[in-house]
## 1
Amino acid sequence: MYSDFITCLECILNKTSLKERAEVITLCWAIWRNRNDIVWNQRFSSVNKTVAAAKQYLTQWSIAQSRSSTTLLQPIFEGDGDFIWVNPQPNSVKVSVDAAVFEDKDAAGLGLVARDADGMLLQVKSIVWPVRSGFNDRQDLDSTDQDC
């Protein structure tokens, strides 16, 4: 029997394979994240969903680490504020826009990505412009998608 969680975790990590260690650490992270969701967002999740989310996260992370992978456009946890990119209707173009303020450089930036109904990249554009130092009047600049 172990006297505390850290001692137990150290024992597990010292006796398992790299793959098993990754699974244990990811599960610990998912449990901690679930705890934070309960405390801060009053959002409850079942044990099965927490374990499934940890497995999905580890799978996506592992794929992302391989140099030949493609981007996964899936949220890791339902309701996270993340979204799944959806192709526009046939014969349409979707333009995704993102903006940012770089206070340390007294600049703002805007990025646009245009894709067709098959998800093929049509155009990419980024613009950076100077802004006056210390301006306080800016609004939150969120990512948005707009079908054209």
## 2
Amino acid sequence: MTSFDLNETDSTYELHADVETYHQGGTWYTRRCDSPEPFASGASRLRLIAIGVEVARWNGLRHVIRDPDGTIAEINTYLTGPYPSRAPTGHQRVRG
């Protein structure tokens, strides 16, 4: 997994297997960062975040949530296991 330094700009992050929820062209998308294609899209931000949480939770990945302007708003870390926790094991709120 990628490590994040919150003192760096968003453009310096290299995301690999993490899950990302982002906004583009009036639509919300969720994708694995190692793939250019989103696996879910729609108009509801909360629905796409929920989908991203489930994928990150079951795969033991981080879920990066971006604001509509593209800046990182939250980074949540999930661990995998036979009964993964619904709550993130790590949480970083980047903006306000």
## 3
Amino acid sequence: RARIRTVMKTVMIVTKPSDVRLIKLTRELVKYLITTPRYGKDHGVVIYVDENLKNEKRFKYEELLKSSPLIEDNLKFWTRELCANQSEIFNFVLTLGGDGTVLYTSWLFQKVVPPVMSYRLGSLGFLTNFDYQHYHEHLTNAMEKGIRVNLRMRFTCTVYRRIVTSDNKMMAKRCGETGEIMMENIMNGNGSWDAVESKAPIDSIAEHHCALDKNLPCFVTQPVETFEVLNDLVVDRGVEPYMSLLELFADDEHLTTVQADGLVVATPTGSTAYSVSAGGSLVHPEISALLLTPICPHTLSFRPMLLPDSTELRICVPFNSRSTAWASFDGRGRLELKRGDHIKVTPSKFPFPSVCLDNQSRDWFTSLTRCLRWNERERQKGFVVVEDHVTDNETDHDDKGEENDAGPYKIHNTSNSQSDDDDTSTKVEEESEQGEKNEDLHCSSEETGSGSSGGEHEEGDEPGKWRVVTRGKS
């Protein structure tokens, strides 16, 4: 991925608000960026920090102003309103915290997002690839050599609310014979009817062939809120004891009826969050797709699935649902979906540009190993048991009834292959035609029970096979 060189005149710093130890690091970073000359000037860049830090005692704002005359002119404060209405004034964003701080930054910028460099100062740090101890090197390289950016996909969630009216002028008719739903075309006013739902299957028609035509009241919805989501949209049952009943549509086609504790609609970035905990797959950030993952579904066949990012999803709460549903967007903005409400999910026009430490794929695989311990386990040992040469002292110990660490039995590989490494090689025993045996490699065990016979008993005494030798008590 090619480097992007841009002039970073204005830098925004987003600090994890609940971590007081990061306030000192923010103060250190502000002083460094302002007082270090950049781009041929005698001062650095303009810095914006959280407005709440101005009155924070640990930030020591008044003392910071006295430390250098450059700070008073180049240190400013950002607010949520400023990020929402004038996001274009920021050229670069630095986050100090964990993954939650990165998601909060995405939440601040609901439209265009500046490039974001995230320092790993939180708990998990899957999305934070940079080590704060090397911030001098990172920032110098970013401003002088450019940056590599990963455009992470976001999607737009629009909440539609049902409009409640006193009279239902819009009516639909369900055909009793075919199950087809027809709505009166009120656009042209000619009294014609348009089909809004296709005919029922043949077997279903046979079961309900005696049903009569039925008039159905219709309702109108209107959009009320819109959210840009980087991680996931979660629709669940909330505090209700009943499972969620949701109707899922893809490109205006009924996809399925969700009967589960909830549903997760995740981006590739969010595939390593709630979705993977619910059994969803890991999706590489370069794959543009929507990941549907049910939460504790009531059917065994409801498995996670990937849909193209161009798919328009609608998640509806039907009128026959026992309870309402609750929705959250990147863990924020939690709201209730009443019967008749729905959420439309479409691809966003504003991706989230995160700065890569090395390259996109390597950063992602490194995070999988570092944070999730992906596919890590103790390596399985081979069948070959490596054993040193048995000495005369060990033979004496065996005769006295002492067992070594290998236990009462020792197994040797009698295959004809031998390694060049003395520490890991397996001794090879070759049996001569006259029946001579090599006494250097043997297995011994002490039988403490009565009736043990002396001498040796050999099993599998063939070249290239495993051989167990037991020695009786002499």
## 4
Amino acid sequence: MSKEQLMSQEERSFQDYLGKIHGAYSSEKLSYFEHNLETWRQLWRVLEMSDIVLLITDIRHPVVNFPPALYEYVTGELGLALVLVLNKVDLAPPALVVAWKHYFHQHYPQLHVVLFTSFPRDPRTPQDPSSVLKKSRRRGRGWTRALGPEQLLRACEAITVGKGFPNVGKSSLINGLVGRKVVSVSRTPGHTRYFQTYFLTPSVKLCDCPGLIFPSLLPRQLQVLAGIYPIAQIQEPYTAVGYLASRIPVQALLHLRHPEAEDPSAEHPWCAWDICEAWAEKRGYKTAKAARNDVYRAANSLLRLAVDGRLSLCFHPPGYSEQKGTWESHPETTELVVLQGRVGPAGDEEEEEEEELSSSCEEEGEEDRDADEEGEGDEETPTSAPGSSLAGRNPYALLGEDEC
């Protein structure tokens, strides 16, 4: 079959696929999903070269990023091993991380589940809910301190692909494995457009696949909060803010004052618009002409706080609340706490500069304008000390072919 014939066949099959989906479900019920054939082709090409597939999910909402159809296709039709990487485990309590790990083991027995984060923290440090008002800048080590590379390599004898939804940390995982920045990362969904490859060792090739959204019936507000859909493209962000505020006390975490409250001590019912208006008032967001509170900009700012994990919305597996005590005392939870504490102790070489969100409106104003622009929004590149050894950056650099 020639290249032209293959592309023509793929296009016909893809159009039939879209037709069946839109014929079975109305556009109001369907979530946002990928309609670009070229992006799907990137997935197909990557699966063709794969020996083992890594599916990266966000630990805050892993089922949102886990398509069962892909699991059945990879493990069933292709007969490949599938490794589920629960990424960003520093954003969720250790007990919840372990509960999700066992949930996937129970429901998808052919999965190999690995925990990962590029920015481990010390879980022994008490977490103040008001810490949402502080922004942490990571300097120094960064990817060289990633939690999970050794566990991930033990789960794979050869890694050839990293695949997942947009904004779950696929590129950051590649950088964390290598120990330095080799692929570009961004908070903007869809930053990676074409698959990129990098040789971890002579016999282990990593491939960073573009993020791809599978069809689902998820609420679109949840997709926005999961970072799957670009915030800058949302025309009506208030529903997503209301979805967030109905599940975590946003107004309490941000110390907001109700816009209609004359007496601060009095209780007033909050709606999404009130929260956005109060946040705009606190941050000084004003419209250009009338100098009114810019509630649209405030809503976008709140959604970015949620996507970045500074307003953390974590979903629980079924039955977690009833068995929370069991998970907190689980041996794997204790092991995870110890591991995080060993990798990221308080007061280590990494410097953290914290600044109050209310200290400067201009900095986040620039982020609001630029974070979702094409070609911008790359995260700061962690630097290593001059003269550091290759083994310090890439823990697998000294492995021979027979040791991988």
